[in-house]
Write a structure and sequence with these properties.
The complex is a heterodimer of chains A (327) and B (286). With 327 residues, chain A is mainly α. Chain A contains 15 helices and two strands. In chain B, a hairpin with a 2-residue loop joins β1 and β2. Classes of the chains: A mainly alpha (327), B mainly alpha (286).
């Protein structure tokens, strides 16, 4: 028993050291590229976690995540034009993304499976046109309904944004944990496995799907808004773009759909690919598409799925779940 | 004023034919395999690009290039179903969707690498011509679209009701298990169904290319239009598909005439969302 506890502590100690090192990265004067890698990793991780919650654990292939991060991003950007500080814009953006999720939940949740995927695909496409046409602030000079610069964020340093990204990523992981351990997690699993049976057992399938959808929208929104704070400007065609969906899909599917560790591993690989393929902008998405198809066919549960069959993974699993079997 | 309304309505009806043509493959795949082929729009655009390649390099007329384009897309469709989709169905419910999404990206970016993101068109002498109804002029290519849609629709109906393969496809779409027990090779039938859907996508792509300019990223737009047509018309109904196409076509051209061209697609998207909210099974669906 003692050896198991010491194993347990070694495992968690390693995790804690990595997390603390990452948190201290800006203070330690790490190279700027390193911070950028980790920063993007954290934001993508937060969004992929939410996508995994929807697609992996609830069976909802949501293709409208760009809508949420775009709405939150635009709230921050437009807010800074009317003297709303960026942090208030961030909160407002999260709230608006959540409200928007509730609004579109009514049409899209009447659909299931395949219908749901296309129903959600329509949303960012429509929003892109809306944001092309709709120009609430700013004069003619700033482009015809195109982009907005984010103003007055000079006091916001990379370190601040880095820590915000860290907070969002950690929160997203904790939220998933809590949801999966709760009654809601059970309800979601029942919907994924058989929605009709779940409904006939008294599960309110509409509202129980709305919770993860809205939570996902809020966290995706915040992560997106932080990304646009970093980028400094926002414009419709890159924001409401299928590329974002691809990022989340790829990160989750490479790592392992329906596994908690999947998005972490997948996002590390995705960020690696992102910078590796950045030089070949044209074929980057092509390669990503091929990877997506191949991974899905060969190992539907991604790298975690493959790793699960190895002895090392079982050892790690024992390490972290030792508390449960210490009796 | 009456002329102002009349002209967009006629345009909308003719355009609706093109939309129905684009949607037919999507409807077929959905009806038979219960799969929304997220790559359908990109397959249609792939058809346009194949015709474009044949036109630029061999100087082939787009309609004649169908002789090559159709078998090519038929083969691609059969291979995709056999090697990718067919396996995906065995994995999980979401696997075919994710794989279709991956295929869509592969096609988009292959087109982008081969043909650059510039906007292209299949311009011929007759596609630029126009015809008259009274004092009003209409592009001849729209009329061609409508005629092609009607021909393909009738051919598909005859095929499904008269040939062995057509009947087998219908049987598999109604009840896969029962069809299998009756000695129908359902995997093969699925392959042919997907291939035929791609064949119709090739035809749609050629006529689309003659009507509108297209870019490698146009696929998503036409996927949503096709999806809108399918949910308005209801599944598996060839006649419903035509009606769905007409409704969307007229809505789009009327919106363009009354509210300005920028809102055209927005109206289509809103109609799709509203119908999904009110009647997800489609206006004419059971």
């Amino acid at each position: 028993m003692r050896s198991q506890i010491s194993k347990l502590t070694t495992g968690w100690l390693a995790v804690a050291i990595v997390v603390i090192l990452l948190i201290l990265l800006p203070v330690l004067n790490a190279p700027r590229e390193w911070m950028l890698y980790v920063f993007l990793f954290l934001l993508f991780l937060a969004m992929s976690n939410m996508w995994n919650l929807l697609a992996g654990y609830t069976g909802l292939i949501s293709l409208c995540q760009p809508a949420f991060l775009g709405i939150a991003g635009y709230t921050v950007a437009i807010g800074t034009w009317v003297q709303i500080p960026w942090w208030a814009g961030l909160i407002g953006g999260a709230v608006l993304a959540g409200i928007f999720a509730i609004l579109i939940a009514f049409p899209v949740f009447r659909l299931s499976g395949v219908y749901f995927a296309i129903g959600t695909l329509v949303v960012p496409e429509a929003l892109r046109i809306v944001f092309y046409l709709w120009k609430p602030v700013g004069g003619e000079l700033h482009g015809a309904g195109a982009g907005y610069m984010i103003k007055d964020i000079a006091d916001l340093t990379m370190a601040h944004m880095y820590w915000m990204a860290f907070a969002v990523a950690i929160i997203s992981a904790i939220v998933i944990r809590i949801i999966l351990k709760s009654k809601l997690g059970l309800g979601l699993a029942s919907i994924r496995d058989n929605e009709r049976a779940a409904a006939s057992c008294g599960v309110n399938t509409f509202w129980i799907k709305v919770y993860p959808f809205v939570i996902g929208a809020i966290i995706t929104g915040v992560a997106g808004a932080i990304f646009y704070l970093y980028q400094g400007y926002i414009e419709p065609s890159a924001t409401f773009n299928v590329r974002w969906t691809m990022t989340l899909l790829l990160a989750t599917v490479i790592g392992g759909l329906r596994t908690e560790g999947g998005p972490i591993i997948g996002t590390i690989i995705y960020v690696f690919l992102y910078f590796l393929l950045a030089r070949f902008a044209g074929i980057s998405l092509l390669i990503q598409g091929i990877i997506l198809v191949v991974i899905m066919l060969l190992s539907p549960q991604g790298i975690v799925g493959i790793a699960r069959t190895t002895r090392f993974y079982r050892y790690l699993e024992r390490l972290f779940s030792a508390r449960l079997i210490k009796e | 004023m009456a002329g102002d309304i009349f002209s967009p309505i006629v345009m909308g009806i003719l355009l609706g034919g093109l939309y129905a043509l684009i949607a037919m493959g999507l409807s077929m795949v959905f009806g038979v395999m219960r799969l929304i082929n997220l790559a359908h729009g990109d397959f249609v655009i792939l058809g346009s690009y194949i015709a474009y390649a044949l036109m630029t390099f061999l100087g082939m007329d787009p309609i004649i290039s169908l002789v090559i384009c159709m078998p090519a897309m038929f083969g691609i469709g059969f291979a995709v179903q056999k090697y990718l989709m067919g396996r995906a169905f065995a994995i999980s419910a979401e696997a075919p969707l994710i794989i279709a999404f991956g295929i869509a990206l592969v096609i988009q970016n292959t087109n982008q690498i081969l043909w650059t993101p510039l906007s292209r068109g299949l311009t011929t002498q007759y596609s630029m011509a126009s015809f008259h109804i009274g004092p009003l002029q209409f592009p001849f290519s729209y009329l061609l679209d409508f005629i092609a849609a009607v021909i393909v629709m009738l051919a598909l109906r005859e095929f499904l009701s008269r040939t062995y393969l057509g009947k087998a496809i219908t049987a598999a779409s109604q009840n896969k298990r029962a069809a299998h027990l009756m000695g129908i090779n359902t995997n093969l039938v699925y392959g042919f169904a997907f291939a035929i859907a791609m064949l119709s996508a090739a035809i749609a792509g050629v006529f689309l290319g003659m009507t509108f300019p297209f870019t490698p990223l146009s696929g998503t737009q036409f996927l949503i239009i096709a999806f809108g047509v399918v949910i308005i018309g209801g599944l598996g109904s060839i006649f419903g598909t035509l009606i769905g196409g007409l409704i969307l076509g007229i809505a789009q051209t009327l919106a363009g005439a009354l509210l300005g061209p920028a809102t055209q697609m927005l109206i289509v998207y809103i109609i799709v969302l509203v119908i999904l909210a009110i009647r997800p099974q489609g206006l004419f669906g059971r």
